[in-house]
Amino acid sequence: MTTLTDLLDEGHADGVAPALAGACGTPGVHRFGFAGHLGQDGQQGVYTGAESVFDLASLTKVLSTTLLSAMAVADGRLALDEQPWPGWPGVTVRHVLAHRAGLPGWRPLFEEAMSRRQVGLLPGRRTVVDAAQAVVPDARPDAHTLYSDIGFIALGALLEDRFGERLDRVFDDAARAAYGETTLRYVPIFEQGYVPRISACAPTERCGWRGRVMRGQVHDDNCFAMGGIAGHAGLFGTLGDVQRATCALLDVVCGRRTDAAWTDVLREFAAAPGERGLGFDRPTPGGSTGDVLSAAGVGHLGFTGTSLWLDGQSEVGPAYFVLLTNRVHPTRDNDKIRAFRRVFHHGAMAVLKEVA
User: Rounded mean pLDDT of 158-168?
Assistant: First the structure.
């Protein structure tokens, strides 16, 4: 019987990433696997395990910003069809969540903070947000779907305004309500706060402009300039953290959890029409999940080599899949994760079928 560890060992041997961790399950069955090590630049180090901490990259969008948006809509702080950004006429919160605002995918906003010597400092957060909101849309709203960090940077700042507190602090309370006790955290760069144990962190890229291997600080350039706290990136966590959060989201999407108004809103986000829903992604033919998920599946990918997916209507019933890697170590030029993601999801589904 093939196990998740077998799958991850194969990925490690093929050079997908130095460190890999994966989980899959149904409400009654949970399987975990680990492979590789947390050394730097190919050097052996601490073996990957349950305490290993990964830079979750854009999983932040669904685990933090989408969740907070649903909570804000539920308590009246935010309206999906409001247009809160004067520089983006006609762009609504709904457009940003659906990646249909007409915004470009990415811009090196951190360069503005660099020019002002504000990178990683509190003023750098405002500089990057202002630069994001000054980006001119490439197309009118609803013209097409284009995945964009720019909109989620602006949305994260809007949520701070509506909640009246910094995003990491709002998230800490929200995560406890949604996911239970968790060590999912943003890692502030500009002040004393949560700092993961460095020896437990999977290193990411050897960054030219920062002059070092990133480890225990966010890999994303724009998020780093914002001090590690943003709507599009910044969360760190262990496999157990992401697995528990994904199971909680699965309970919401499947209607097994209806104890708060935000759960109804989040379920509507996941079911919203369109290519991506609201704040989530959806599987595509030939995509990272292969043909494992049904049309009801939702999830997200992260640039560092992370992903989470949940599906209330899979072949084995409600199911989830989590893959965490540091495929960008020591360089982002390693793209073997593209093919491996499909291998992982097909193999994980086979594991679930064997125990179903």
Answer: 97
Pairwise CA distance, residues 291 & 265, whole Å:
28
End-to-end CA distance of the chain: 14
CA 41 – CA 206 distance, rounded (Å) = 8
Q: What is the pLDDT of residues 273-314, one digit of tens each?
A: 989 999 999 999 889 999 999 999 999 999 999 999 999 999
pTM of the model: 0.97
Whole-number Å distance between alpha carbons of 229 and 21: 24
Asked, for residue 107, whether it belongs to a domain, the answer is no
Question: In the chain, what is the greatest distance between 2 CA atoms, to the nearest angstrom?
Answer: 57
The answer to the question of residue 88 being in a domain is no
How many structural domains is the chain composed of? 1
Is there a contact between 87 and 134 (Cβ–Cβ < 8 Å)? Answer: yes
pLDDT in tens, 10-37: 999 999 999 999 999 999 999 999 999 9
Which single residue is written with the structure tokens 């249909």? 100
C-alpha closest to that of 35 among 23, 48, 52, 50: 48
Q: Is position 332 within any domain?
A: yes
CB 229 within 8 A of CB 168: yes
What CATH number is given to the structural domain containing 250?
Answer: 3.40.710.10
**Cα(199)–Cα(206) distance, integer angstroms:** 17
Sign of CA dihedral 222, 226, 228, 230: negative
Torsion angle, alpha carbons of 130, 135, 141, 146, to 10: -110
Domain presence at residue 136: no
What is the pLDDT confidence band of residue 192, given thresholds at 50, 70 and 90?
Answer: low
Identity of residue 76:
G
Long-range contacts of residues 125-133, Cβ cutoff 8 Å, at least 24 apart: 125/226, 125/227, 125/229, 127/225, 128/153, 128/222, 128/225, 128/226, 128/230, 129/153, 129/154, 129/157, 129/226, 131/107, 132/107, 132/157, 133/85, 133/87, 133/88
Helix (H, G, I), strand (E, B) or coil at 174: helix
Tell me the C-alpha to C-alpha distance, in Å, between residue 320 and each of 35, 190, 192, 254, 308. 20, 35, 35, 12, 7
Residue 30's DSSP bridge partners are: 25
- What residues make up the domain containing 275? 4-61+166-355
